[in-house]
Model the fold of this input.
Amino acid sequence: MSFARRQTLELSDFPDVVPQLRPLMHCVCVVYSTSNYYNSPARIIVLMTETCNLLVDAARKYLDPNSLFQVEVEEALDKVLMTLKIFGKYRDAFREFKAKLPSYYKVRSRQSTLSRRIVNLVINSSGREEAKDVGFSGASGLQAIRLFR
Done:
């Protein structure tokens, strides 16, 4: 999560977080689908855990246990129901973007398909692994050719 987005979530009043949940999940999907570092389940789980912990901390501050039992019952109940509603919206946003996740890969998969075709053409026409002809260079180019086979 970017520092600016995290700071925005931390400084917002807890009920004001709701409009920021969908853009947050969109950012997580973009990071997961494009990053070389965060595109593994283990790494994205850490990111999602941090996001959940941030929301739990914000809810804890919003529900402040010291004052929760000193106010009117209706007001305390409203705060608890609002917190549950926000966590429900977070869960809904997560499920929505989880379902949309394959669409984040469409552009990337088209590029990969084109790269595979180019590499196959080079390998088939020359009979040897020449990565330099398609813009790859050095060991990473040979690794790319081996991955595309």
In short: The chain has two domains: 3-104, 109-148.
